[in-house]
Write a structure and sequence with these properties.
This protein has 376 residues and is an alpha+beta fold. It contains 11 helices and 17 strands.
């Protein structure tokens, strides 16, 4: 009854918007409003604030499942999980304080461990949404067998609020790893990629990686997580300089939240934007356009962050597509003229997005600037 009473005004507002033609912009903590350089484009849409719809509905630590309302602060959910020795292994980014569970699912962004543990969508077991007609719909459940077939639950991960209001989500959680160590290696980007490729074919507890060039020197960071014996054995076989997990935990959090000096210093260059290049893990060093700085490489080579001028978008897209990937604008520079110049979306993906939008939101109630393809 409590959920029904809290959802009633939200449902009514969606129905009114469908009738009147006024667009709604679903919003939680607003911590990712900048993504895709989109914040300035959404001024005409009315805000639908979900932060009042909070609370853990059900949590069974022994079953590794939590069901939570989507206005719940992400920090509160993670604190509750940590108190039981559990976590969200995909490490959802914060960027700043105030993020919500709904925003986490809607944006579909994952942190440093993405390449080894999977993305947000891989942990969504069930979901409740309000579609563009004001209908309350449930998909999936609280166990893996409920997500067979056409998986609408996971479809909502990374939909950026374009298909419906996510009101409740059931997530698979995992125990906090027993052991954790970070190894560092001084090497250039090509050597880092070669090492990561070689390690990827071995039974190693490789959880996360980050290569960054600092002061002209390349540094590769590799995080190992898992059983204590496996981590100890990997340290011996891989070499490098060893750092205890607690000593570098803040650095991995800074990588997750784009607070490393590489991100901060790049953002200070107002003529540059931050680009996100998703490529195969085995892709070589990319030839970047003039004006682009050396990238920061995550996900065992699959994610390349690049600071480059806004007019470099097409060249970055071409470089990514040449190795079977794609590029997307992630954060526009400070100058207002940088808005709205991201590379065009693939035509096939545009067609799929359009058909999904027509099915879930035929009246076009849910407005979001173009962000599809930014997630995972």
């Amino acid at each position: 009854m409590e959920s029904a009473a809290l959802l009633s005004p939200i449902i009514e507002r969606v129905r009114e918007s469908a009738h009147s033609g006024h667009a709604l912009r679903i919003r939680g903590g607003g911590t990712k409003d900048f993504v895709g350089g989109a914040s300035a484009a959404s001024g005409h849409a009315e805000r639908l604030d979900m932060r009042g719809y909070v609370g853990v509905v059900d949590y069974e630590p022994s079953e590794l499942v939590v069901t939570v309302r989507t206005g719940t602060p992400l920090a509160e959910l993670e604190a509750e999980l940590a108190s039981r020795g559990q976590c969200l292994p995909f490490e959802p980014p914060r960027f700043t304080v105030g993020g919500t569970v709904g925003g986490m699912v809607a944006c579909g962004l994952s942190g440093p461990a993405r390449a080894s543990v999977g993305a947000v969508r891989d942990y969504v077991l069930g979901i409740e949404i309000i579609n563009g007609k004001g209908e309350l719909l449930r998909f999936g459940g609280q166990v893996m067998k409920n997500v067979a077939g056409y998986d609408v639950s996971r479809l909502m991960a990374g939909s950026w609020g374009t298909l419906g209001v996510i009101t409740e989500v059931s997530l698979k959680v995992l125990p906090v790893p027993v052991a954790e160590t970070t190894l560092t290696f001084e090497c250039n980007q090509a050597s880092a990629l070669a090492r990561l490729h070689a390690w990827g074919g071995q039974p190693l507890p490789l959880n996360a990686s980050c290569w960054v060039q600092d002061g002209g020197r390349g540094q590769l960071y590799v995080r190992l997580r898992g059983a204590r014996a496996a981590v100890e054995a990997a340290c011996v076989s891989m070499g490098g300089e060893r750092h205890d997990g607690a000593d570098v935990a803040a650095d991995w959090d800074a990588c997750r939240d784009h607070q490393l000096p590489w991100f901060v210093d790049g953002a200070a260059q107002t003529e540059h934007a931050l680009w996100r290049l998703s490529v195969p893990q085995t892709a070589p060093v990319l030839t970047l356009p003039q004006g682009a700085a050396a990238p920061l490489v995550e996900w065992q080579g699959a994610l390349r962050w690049v600071h480059a001028p806004m007019d470099a978008g097409d060249a970055l897209q071409a470089a990514a597509q040449a190795v079977g990937g794609h590029a997307a604008l992630f954060r526009a520079g400070a100058a207002p003229h940088l808005e709205g110049k991201a590379p065009r979306q693939d035509a096939a993906l545009q067609a799929i997005s359009r058909r999904l939008k027509e099915a879930f939101d035929p009246a076009g109630v849910f407005f979001q600037p173009h962000r599809m393809g930014i997630g995972g």
